[in-house]
Write a structure and sequence with these properties.
The chain has about 350 residues and is mainly alpha-helical. It is about 40% helix and about 5% strand. The strands form 2 sheets. The chain has a two-stranded antiparallel ribbon. It has a two-stranded antiparallel ribbon with strand order 3-4. α3 crosses α8, α9 crosses α12 and α11 packs across α12. The N terminus is likely disordered.
């Protein structure tokens, strides 16, 4: 009799504990509910999985990697009859300042930046302002000068604009080497052809003007850790150049450089910046690429005499920001956009 009584008491205690636990759980759920916490319904478990996946940001490649131009294998250079020139040319592109910068050991004719600051990995990166189409398309007529230009002229344009410096002598050892290297990079592209991935990515146009105020925020969040808050980059400890180049100021590119055009800067950034981005895995959306381009190119930088540029003003690109123009749009709109109306007006004029 006593044993049965003990069992009954034990059972009642267990039931009481279970009821207490259930009351606690229900009370906790009610508390969370009134606190605004959303609890998932068990029956919706399967439905919640696709929603969770959909909320993960998907980074889309800007182009099909399989279709992109690729530079020749560097290991094959030794088989070239001018291998020494090619190798010196690559060294000059990668470390321009060491040889031709303010403290250059050959000449002091440029601002301290390297060619590969604009032409990534010595001009070999798809959509990284590469040299893939140079050998195949030069010499060619260029509307900016109104003349037929060869590769030597194109190289000196970069020295005078992007490097804000002086031209190389056409017969100099350095010019010969740089031409040899650029020709080698594009040697596999048939004459007259421009391969996919050559040059700079074409960013879709916005329906508004690029916004330098928004671009300042993009710069602060994404760019200044390398290029510094004042835009002056990160110099090498020995003063021979930059680990990360200045984006404005007296040691940056002047306003005659290609990257001073917003579409060029935005395309370069969209496919390659910030550090770690690529056309396969871009980081910034189109809008932020345009806006940060507007911010950077709103800052002070060296000037250049552009009076001989674009002798036929009807051939000025939509984002060349200096008049006179063959249309009625302002310099402000030619610099920041919106560019669609300019394009549409140019198409109608034809």
């Amino acid at each position: 009799m006593m044993q049965q009584f003990v069992k009954l008491v034990t059972l009642l205690v267990g039931l009481l504990g279970l009821v207490t636990a259930l009351v606690g759980v229900v009370g906790f759920v009610v508390f969370l509910s009134y606190s605004g916490v959303q609890l998932p319904a068990l029956s919706e478990k399967e439905e919640s999985i696709p929603q969770a996946i959909a909320e993960i940001p998907v980074v889309k490649s800007l182009a099909d990697p399989a279709e992109m131009w690729r530079a020749p294998d560097w290991a094959t250079v030794e088989a070239e009859p001018n291998a020494a020139d090619i190798k010196y040319g690559k060294e000059l592109v990668a470390n321009t300042s060491e040889y031709l910068g303010p403290k250059g050991k050959v000449k002091a004719i440029s601002n301290g930046m390297n060619c590969q600051n604009c032409h990534l990995q010595a001009g070999t990166v798809p959509l990284g302002n590469n040299y893939g189409a140079v050998f195949s398309t030069y010499p060619k007529m260029r509307a900016r000068s109104g003349t037929e230009e060869d590769i030597q002229k194109r190289i000196n344009d970069c020295f005078e604009r992007s490097l804000n410096g002086q031209p190389l002598a056409r017969d100099s050892k350095e010019m010969v080497a740089m031409v040899a290297y650029i020709n080698w990079v594009g040697k596999d592209v048939p004459k007259g052809e421009t391969p996919k991935g050559a040059g700079i990515y074409e960013v879709p146009l916005l329906d508004r003007a690029a916004d330098s105020a928004k671009g300042k925020l993009v710069y602060e969040n994404q760019c200044q850790s390398c290029h510094a808050a004042d835009g002056q980059g990160m110099p090498k400890p020995d003063g021979t150049g930059y680990l990360y180049p200045p984006l404005w100021g007296k040691n940056s590119y002047n306003h005659g450089a290609g990257l001073y055009r917003l579409s060029r800067f935005a395309g370069y950034v969209r496919a390659n910046m910030p550090l770690g981005a690529s056309f396969e895995n871009p980081i910034l959306p189109d809008e932020e690429a345009w806006d940060v381009a507007a911010f950077v190119n709103s800052m002070e930088r060296p000037g250049k005499d552009l009076s001989k540029d674009w002798p036929d003003i009807s051939k000025k690109p939509m984002d060349h920001p200096f008049g006179p123009f063959a249309d009625e749009f302002t310099e402000e709109q030619h610099k920041f956009g919106p560019f669609k109306p300019i394009q549409e007006a140019k198409a109608k004029s034809k």
